[in-house]
From TrEMBL:
InterPro entries: Integrin_alpha_Ig-like_2, Integrin_alpha_Ig-like_3, Integrin_dom_sf. This is ITA7 protein. One of its GO terms (molecular function) is integrin binding. It holds the Pfam family Integrin_A_Ig_3. One of its GO terms (cellular component) is external side of plasma membrane. Residues 10-139 form the Integrin alpha second immunoglobulin-like domain. Residues 146-243 form the Integrin alpha third immunoglobulin-like domain. The lineage of its organism: Eukaryota, Metazoa, Chordata, Craniata, Vertebrata. One of its GO terms (biological process) is cell-matrix adhesion. Its main location: membrane. Keywords: Glycoprotein, Integrin, Membrane. It is a single-pass type I membrane protein.
Amino acid sequence: APRGADGTAIFAMSDQKDVALEIHVTNLPSDPAEPQRDGDDAHEAMLTATFPPELPYSALRPYDGRPSLDKPVVCLANQNGSQVECELGNPMKRGAQVRFFLILSTLGITIQTTDLAVELALSTISEQPGLEPVVARARVVIELPLSVTGVAVPPRLFFGGVVRGESAVRRESQVGSAVRFEVTVSNRGQSLKTLGSAFLTLLWPHEISNGKWLLYPLHLELVASPGQRAACSPAANPLRLALVPPWEGGTGMD
């Protein structure tokens, strides 16, 4: 996984529903020069992993390689997936190494999630001083696969009619033929519980070189999901012309 300047892993969240946490547990001598001092069989060796609410436990997956234990690792999770206990061996033999993956669900991650921390604690009934918990940390970067498409209706428009000055225009039928731009923004990834803020910037031929209107923004209509706030700035129809739906063709405006 990519890492930041401080060495912390960076988790780029886009459309994946799960993330794999690789676990590597060893029962090796602490000093290879004196292998007989410690590293004996570890009886009732257990791993207890505690997960944040945003990243609950989902499943166990074996490591892509030959298992180093006679029996496969067995993990039991609590009801909400906030903690799991994995049996590493009884005993976990001297010199043994265990690798496996804990699969975690990303469905609880929101746009406000900035970091994640998983606590890993080993235990055994054998004498084993200094078994301190290890915390696996990652920063979260949300990468929403947004896409935008647009179409003009009608696709071709001809200018014509009596040219009017801006001060003489009072209603929409006096600003010329209407053209409707339909813009669709979609999220191809998974739906986050909270959407945060997304912005779309639209550029159009607003005026010609002498400052005269070219395309006048007459009306903006936003279709959003229930509960979503959608607002545009600046507002359409800056001259506050009288709108008479449906839009009518008319004269041009200089």
